[in-house]
Amino acid sequence: MPSPTSDQTHLSRRALLACGAASVSTLGLSAPAKARVAAGANIDYVYEVTKSDAEWRAQLSEREYEILREGYTEGQRTGTLWEEKREGSYHCKGCELKVFDGRWKTFVEGKGWVFFIHPEPASVMTNIDGPTPEYGAMGTGKTPLTEIHCRRCGCHLGHYLLVEGKMTHCINGTSLTFQPASA
Ligand SMILES: [Zn+2]
User: Fold this and answer.
1) Nearest to 183 by CA among 96, 101, 86
2) Per-residue confidence of the chain (183 residues) as pLDDT tens digits?
3) C-alpha 149 – ligand 1 centre gap (Å)
4) Distance between Cα 4 and ligand 1 center (Å)
5) Is residue 5 part of a domain?
6) Please, which residues have CB within 8 angstroms of residue 110's CB and are 6 or more apart in sequence?
7) Given its phi and psi angles, is residue 64 left (phi above 0), alpha (psi -120 to 50 degrees) or beta?
8) In a domain, 122, yes or no
9) What are the residue numbers of the active site?
10) Which InterPro entries does the record match to this protein (predicted)?
């Protein structure tokens, strides 16, 4: 399991605690997007967009690769788009599939990730993150997290968490590109 390159650019597993601290106390952002539809499943899922590791590395920056392909979580406020308030659509940086619409974006004070109430229909899939043998149960909890990835290319987007009483998609801005609505 690779390590994050920098504490500034990545919160490793532990740090997502801040995202849903009130209700989620377990982290385990293991590689979520490697052709498994669920942890422990022995059924390989073939994504519509598949690329070799070399192709992903050529397409993505090192930081993007670690988040989109290895499942790391960006540091609070280190990504882009968490402050974006314009109307528009949010697309997977791996394959440009529209995964969220700005009308479902919600701002969670003091967090610094990108939050949505709903994804676009048939745009994301889920996986189970941790506890893992490598990282164990973080904090006091032993509850796995629901990981979210793009259904077309498998790139890691974020997690589905209980945030301030609502089930919310907590997404890395690094995983998204934004297209403002045309005037
Ligand atoms: Zn994608």
Assistant:
1) 86
2) 344 443 334 444 333 433 443 333 333 333 333 333 333 444 678 999 999 999 999 999 999 999 999 988 898 888 889 999 999 999 999 999 999 999 999 998 888 999 999 999 999 999 887 665 444 444 334 567 889 999 999 999 999 988 889 999 999 999 999 999 985
3) 8
4) 22
5) no
6) none
7) alpha
8) yes
9) 170
10) Met_Sox_Rdtase_MsrB, Met_Sox_Rdtase_MsrB_dom, Mss4-like_sf, TAT_signal
What is the extent of the structural domain holding 129? 10-180
Residue 1 lies in a domain: no
Residue 168 Cα to ligand 1 midpoint, Å, equals 20
Residues 100, 90 contacting (CB under 8 angstroms): yes
Contact 160, 168 (CB under 8 A): yes
User: In this structure, is residue 166 part of a structural domain?
Assistant: yes
The CATH number of whichever domain residue 143 belongs to comes to 2.170.150.20
Say if residues 76 and 181 touch (Cβ distance below 8 Å): no
User: How open is the CA angle 123-60-36, to the nearest 5 degrees?
Assistant: 45
3-state SS, residue 114: strand
**How far does the centroid of ligand 1 lie from the alpha carbon of residue 117, in Å?**
19
